[in-house]
What we know:
The complex is a heterodimer of chains A (277) and B (258). Chain A contains twelve helices and ten strands. Chain A starts with a strand and ends with a helix. Chain A has 277 residues and is α/β, with parallel strands linked by helices. In chain A, 42% of the residues lie in helices and 23% in strands. Chain B starts with a helix and ends in a 7-residue tail after the last helix. Helices cover 70% and strands 5% of the residues of chain B. Chain B is mainly alpha-helical. At the A-B interface, helix 2, helix 3, helix 4 and helix 5 of A face helix 6, helix 7 and helix 8 of B.
Amino acid sequence: xxxxxxxxxxxxxxxxxxxxxxxxxxxxxxxxxxxxxxxxxxxxxxxxxxxxxxxxxxxxxxxxxxxxxxxxxxxxxxxxxxxxxxxxxxxxxxxxxxxxxxxxxxxxxxxxxxxxxxxxxxxxxxxxxxxxxxxxxxxxxxxxxxxxxxxxxxxxxxxxxxxxxxxxxxxxxxxxxxxxxxxxxxxxxxxxxxxxxxxxxxxxxxxxxxxxxxxxxxxxxxxxxxxxxxxxxxxxxxxxxxxxxxxxxxxxxxxxxxxxxxxxxxxxxxxxxxxxx
Amino acid sequence: xxxxxxxxxxxxxxxxxxxxxxxxxxxxxxxxxxxxxxxxxxxxxxxxxxxxxxxxxxxxxxxxxxxxxxxxxxxxxxxxxxxxxxxxxxxxxxxxxxxxxxxxxxxxxxxxxxxxxxxxxxxxxxxxxxxxxxxxxxxxxxxxxxxxxxxxxxxxxxxxxxxxxxxxxxxxxxxxxxxxxxxxxxxxxxxxxxxxxxxxxxxxxxxxxxxxxxxxxxxxxxxxxxxxxxxxxxxxxxxxxxxxxxxxxxxxxxxxxx
Lengths: 277, 258
């Protein structure tokens, strides 16, 4: 259990209107990795995250965080949420404070930290997200990209062990999306387990170490990125397509342009290097 | 509303100590509450207007619009005060027989009406000064320092934020309706407005549910703590406020207009 930060055992979640969002979902998430939860729209990604955070309580099954079974009393939930932060897909629902600084300070203040420490964390989170200088800016005056950064900063300031980003690049332009993924990479290097959900297989392939494939609330596949993406049947079942980079690599391999032994390239540069050889 | 907020965030005095701004405004309001000299009311209106127009550089058109809003209520109200039923033989400035009654404007009623008008304008202009220079974060700070119950201050904060969220949502629904000819005729307009209101309610409920989840995930447990802000006092500002206080006292010696 030591290397798994999160485990779920047969969790079932059905919404009040009868929508079955998660059915008998069992999975393990390794600590310290970059993990992508992949699935088409409505596959249960967000519901899973809300369950992990104790916002939703599965009707059946168990969730373990750092080896401990999730309990739903106030104190346990407080502890869980201080260690597992979620950046919601739409920053508009996350931002409530009048200005950026107050927004980012909200989480650390809830943790009961002294003012000095709160200030340090706010400063650090704003520096990491490139929001320095916007402390006093009103949240409603930020651009969409800045709102997203502020939402990420507001969770980072709590210094969680696990950071979850629900569709972190949704509605962002490529430059902002790139920055967000770079930031998540940086955070992961500091030892934080970073989980994102996406339906963009290209993004997941270039960024993630571990892939969790969901479809209709069920686990379709789990494992290292390459293994999951090579299994075309799995991807089709999930309603997703194979990453373009991997498609090209397979094509090159079939035509004998690259040697069979090399691992699949994760970036365009890596692919270019292979072709030259 | 949105322009006021914009001006507050871009005002020259946005970083000034909120207590200084509040003291200045309270000084004016307090003076208005304690005395009824027209000269003082007029002086405050002029002072605030000069600050707002020439120091804060608010566009005159916008400031006039701001003043017209309360004036729309004030003028009819003051007219009603000025006009009173009076006995026919009494000495009045204007007499209007109306059936068995006689309406008229007497010296006293006119003086009262002018007094109310000027006092109200003085208070309104002082409050506009506060609104145009103080961001919501600072107002929240003031509310907390004034020991207003935390619940009320937090409610105000959430309301403030949600006005913008609501306006954004309404705007996007309106745009999406317009692109599908939702406002092309009187009939369509009525129908679209109806569904806009309904849509707004549903979306707001949905959003508040999500927002609550987002708050919970950041360890929200009922309170909205806020980071203590440290503002710096400015000697210059306090001297100016003191000067205004002294001037208002000196003006008290001027005899009334009527």
